[in-house]
Amino acid sequence: MGSIRFFMYFILVFHVIISIQITCCQSRICLPEKQAALFIFGDSQFDAGNNNYINTTTSAQANYDPYGETYFKYPTGRYSDGRVIPDFIAEFAKLPLLLPYLHPASSLDNYIFGVNFASAGSGALLETRQGTAIDLKTQASYFKQVSKVLKKKLGDGEAKEFLANAVYIIAVGDNDYGVALFSNSSTTVVNIQHPQEFVNLVIGNISSVIQDIYEEGGRKFGLLNVGPINCYPIARIFMNGSSLDECQKQEASAIARLHRRALPIMLQELQKQLEGFKYSLTDYYGALTEVMRYPYKYGFKEGEAACCGGGSYRGDFSCGGKRGIKKYELCENVNDFVYFDSVHHTDKAAQHFANLMWTGHNHFTRPYNLKQLFQFSSLHCAY
Ligand SMILES: *[C@@H]1O[C@H](CO)[C@@H](O)[C@H](O)[C@H]1NC(C)=O
Ligand SMILES: *[C@@H]1O[C@H](CO)[C@@H](O)[C@H](O)[C@H]1NC(C)=O
Ligand SMILES: *[C@@H]1O[C@H](CO)[C@@H](O)[C@H](O)[C@H]1NC(C)=O
Ligand SMILES: *[C@@H]1O[C@H](CO)[C@@H](O)[C@H](O)[C@H]1NC(C)=O
């Protein structure tokens, strides 16, 4: 008798749990707010040290002084005096700092918060610095491994919910265009004389990686476009004295603008095709040009020259003295600068861009900002 009562009680409780879940799906308020994870893909803009663990050149590594000198007090592999953009995004999302995927301590326990797959020097195209960086497709294949582990550990249902709630951020493209234009690489797949075709390949490959992540269960994506490449100190060293208007007219900046036009069209297309797909696109090209032009407006003093390096604009990429040129200069007040080395940003500038991605209700980030993507949990009851 007792066991039957217990059984009835059990059925009742079970029934109540099920009804609560169903009500939740309709009202979308009563399930406890789950922490959405952050998965990071792309190039040096986002790399937190994956390249420390691959066989590459010192040009593709930043694991020596003075990188890391301000925030971490030691070189972590980030191309910055301190943090890179995803470090701030993780902080805003109340997540811990996310480890590079190849870091020995990165494991299942911390995949619960996400992980960082980005690799300095990498591109959307396999051919971009092949062999010295982890290309975007390979990064996506690492993510599939993680997803497999999560599905095994959490079960399919919970893993699906976890992956749908996570946010996936991607910064890629700069190296595809930069390498094709600034090196006479025989591996360039497309004649750069046909810029639109080249841009279509890059965009096509980004789209295909987003679809791979979607297949695994990803729904919320945050992207950056590509900056005005000829205006980076590393490019301007060759044209000392030219204005910001002039470097924007040059070839690589013009291709970056083709990319800037094509990226939102691709994302809108995916939104039409893929159920539940949401994105946030930050106009890095526009935002960077703005802060380079008006550094004082955003709390900087120098928007065009780098803090660390040599030559005009400190654009010779010698920061750290390990890339062929031994002698380099280092500025005194790093927080005055938008660029730390000849290509990459200071901790303070990374924070500026992370803010734009997170809260940007201005014209630089649309249609959603990352804060909104983190808050969406419409897929909580989708399974
Ligand atoms: C790293 O690359 C160098 C040069 O390509 C090669 O000689 C060396 O064997 C590689 N090391 C490993 C561990 O793959
Ligand atoms: C590319 O090749 C051209 C012609 O061969 C040469 O003038 C130029 O300096 C080369 N550029 C680089 C970056 O190697
Ligand atoms: C991706 O890039 C490769 C070259 O690396 C190209 O052959 C392929 O067509 C591209 N894929 C898409 C979908 O555009
Ligand atoms: C341009 O070159 C001149 C002479 O080498 C140098 O004095 C000046 O500082 C350079 N300008 C910039 C912006 O680096």
Brief summary of the model shown:
This protein has 383 residues and is α/β, with parallel strands linked by helices. The chain has 13 helices and 10 strands. It binds 2-acetamido-2-deoxy-beta-D-glucopyranose (4 copies).
What does this entry look like structurally?
With 383 residues, the protein is α/β, with parallel strands linked by helices. It has one domain (32-302, 346-373): Rossmann fold. It has 13 helices and 10 strands. Strands 2-1-3-4-5-10 form a 6-stranded mixed β-sheet, with helices on both faces. A two-stranded parallel sheet has the order 6-9. The chain binds 2-acetamido-2-deoxy-beta-D-glucopyranose (4 copies).
Topology of this structure?
Layout: H1 2-27, E1 38-42, H2 85-92, H3 108-111, E2 114-116, H4 136-154, H5 156-165, E3 167-171, H6 174-182, H7 195-216, E4 220-224, H8 233-236, H9 244-249, H10 251-273, E5 278-282, H11 284-293, E6 302-306, E7 308-309, E8 329-330, E9 337-339, H12 347-359, E10 365-367, H13 370-375
Parallel strand pairs: 1-2, 1-3, 3-4, 4-5, 6-9
Antiparallel strand pairs: 5-10, 7-8
The protein binds 2-acetamido-2-deoxy-beta-D-glucopyranose (4 copies).
Residues 182-184 line the site of one 2-acetamido-2-deoxy-beta-D-glucopyranose.
Largest sheet: 6 strands, mixed
Q: Uncertain regions: pLDDT < 50 for 5+ in a row?
A: 6-32, 378-383
Q: Output the CATH class name.
A: Alpha Beta
If you consult CATH, what is the topology?
Answer: Rossmann fold
As a percent range, the share of helical residues equals 40-55%
CATH architecture: 3-Layer(aba) Sandwich
**Category from helices, strands and their pairing:** alpha/beta
Protein name: GDSL esterase/lipase 1-like
Keywords: Signal
Family: Belongs to the 'GDSL' lipolytic enzyme family.
InterPro entries: GDSL, GLIP1-5/GLL25, SGNH_hydro_sf, SGNH_plant_lipase-like
